[in-house]
Write a structure and sequence with these properties.
- The chain is built from twelve helices and eight strands.
- By secondary structure, the chain is α/β, with parallel strands linked by helices.
- The longest helix has 17 residues.
- The model has no long low-confidence stretch (mean pLDDT 97).
């Protein structure tokens, strides 16, 4: 259903932390113009943890409005409360997203059966395509392959964003789920490798900064053109690494501000990028031929 370079979009904010609709429209147009295939609205990179419910729905609605059918929009609607995940997913469906991305419930540490029942409850409640999201490094919760396979049998569950970087696990998922269920990388550094194994694309932080190069790399990789994809990815490798020198989205928001794309806003408890990392991120941007 979705493929290629899909950006985990930042949520632009003014210096006081208020939402910046003008900046959001600018970013949406930027991605349309540079080949990004889908926008993930209000995921982790979009600071979902510090937007309240109404803001969360507002940003998704504005993103759909500004996209105007030119690019797919996937709403980040996961929560560690099943009721809240259903409410956010309903809101996303009502504002017209093409699909939803649902992270595993964080902090609670549910069992595998709890994960299964959580995602089935959302899938049963809202008739919108849903992509699972497994990122144990952030959630302290790991959705195992057997749970993914069980969930993949539901018609509304269409794929998984896997951020483990574990290629053996990726092969297990692809080998045990049918062709209608798509696997996406949630780890820029290993995204190329996953696509060459059969993954359908990358839900990317790097794409915020270098959308055109990420798009070309993903097109080549999903077509099995490994040499061409690797040549592009070499230039992006610095961004894949250095955009995580502090917690995401601190570095990527700083880089976008450096490019003149967004204002300086970021919400506590996140803080602006430490000055000692400015030259580190600038060098990665230079390596990727990203300029103001």
């Amino acid at each position: 259903m979705f493929h290629g370079s899909m950006v985990a979009l930042v949520t632009p904010m003014l210096a006081d932390g208020s939402l910046d609709d003008t900046g959001l429209k600018k970013l949406v147009d930027f991605h349309v113009d540079n080949g990004t295939r889908a926008i993930i609205s209000v995921g982790t990179t979009g600071e979902s943890a510090t937007l309240d419910f109404d803001e969360h729905c507002q940003v998704m609605a504005r993103t759909v409005e500004y996209a105007a059918g030119r690019i797919a929009v996937i709403g980040g609607t996961g929560s560690n409360s099943t009721r809240e995940a259903i409410a956010l997913t309903r809101c996303a469906h009502q504002v017209g997203v093409d699909a939803c991305l649902l992270v595993t419930p964080y902090y609670n540490k549910p069992t595998q059966e709890g994960l299964y029942q959580h995602h089935i409850a959302v899938a049963e409640a809202v008739p919108v395509p849903q992509i699972l999201y497994n990122v144990p490094g952030r959630t302290a919760c790991d959705m195992l392959t057997e749970t993914v396979v069980r969930l993949s049998k539901h018609d509304n569950i269409v794929g998984i964003k896997d951020a483990t970087g574990d290629m053996r696990r990726a092969q297990e998922i692809m080998g045990q789920c049918d062709d209608r269920f798509s696997l996406y990388s949630g780890d820029d550094a290993t995204g190329l490798e996953l696509m060459l194994l059969g993954g359908k694309g990358v839900i990317s932080v790097t794409a915020n900064i270098a959308p055109q190069a990420m798009s070309k790399m993903c097109v080549a990789a999903t077509a099995g053109q490994g040499s061409a994809a690797r040549e592009i990815d070499i230039g992006l490798a610095g961004l894949h690494e250095k955009l995580f020198v502090e917690a995401n989205p601190i570095p990527v928001k700083w880089a976008l501000q450096e490019m003149g794309m967004i204002d300086s806003g970021i919400r506590l408890p996140l803080t602006p990028l430490s000055s000692r990392f400015h030259d580190t991120v600038r060098q990665a941007m230079k390596q990727a031929s990203v300029t103001r």
